[in-house]
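Title: Request for sanity check on Na+/H+ antiporter MnhB subunit-related protein prediction

Description:
We are preparing a figure and want to confirm that the structure record we downloaded matches what your pipeline produces today. Could someone re-run it with the sequence below and paste the raw structure tokens into this thread? We only need the token string, no images.
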Amino acid sequence: MIYTMGIISIVLLFIVLGPFMIPDTLWPQTARDFLQYNGLNDTGASNLVSAIYLGYRAYDTIGETIVLLAAVTGALYLIKRAPLPQIGIAQPQPKPKRRTTIIGLTTGKLAPVVMLFGWYVMFFGHLSPGGGFQGGVVLASGMLFIALGREGYHRESKLNNHGFHLIEVLSLWFLVVLVCIPLAFGASILENPFTKIDEMLPRVIYVISFNMAIGLKVASGLTLLGLLMMDMTHD
């Protein structure tokens, strides 16, 4: 059965990619050349990937953020609504210790480095590979490292929901503000307003702001999800 599925997958792969690989027709170059020669001037981002997904395809990026918000919200709701174990007459057996000294020491040393790298990926995504989504995931990993290093972690811990809920809400409003700012300066929605305000202002500020807002949204949502999944009462 496994071999059959493998053969079918290979055949389907060739069916899909064959028309693009076999013909000698050149790939369309108009869009590529336009982005190459205008991406930096229009957005201020030398990294064309950031220029595209936070400039020319900003609508798609906002849609992805909304999808992530809906997914995280649904997952949090299901986890919070999961029934807690009922306490009967018989005492439950103690659970084995999961956080060893090695885990605590390793995560404690790695967490600051990982979180610093996450901020770097968000803040410099317009210059090098990275951006809000990638930096947010890295930043969430650092926060979860801190939780992994705490033997006594539980839902009422200080490293918990309220602060991350607040960050998530504020970052969502930050995104809303960034979407509406161009309209206040006579630009189209999601258009970089700094191209119309002042030539002395760096146009890349708009891209950086979007990266930071998206990164904080992703980091807070994934951290919340990870903390609830690590909750001992739902093992």
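Thanks, this matches our download. The chain has one domain: 49-80+99-234.
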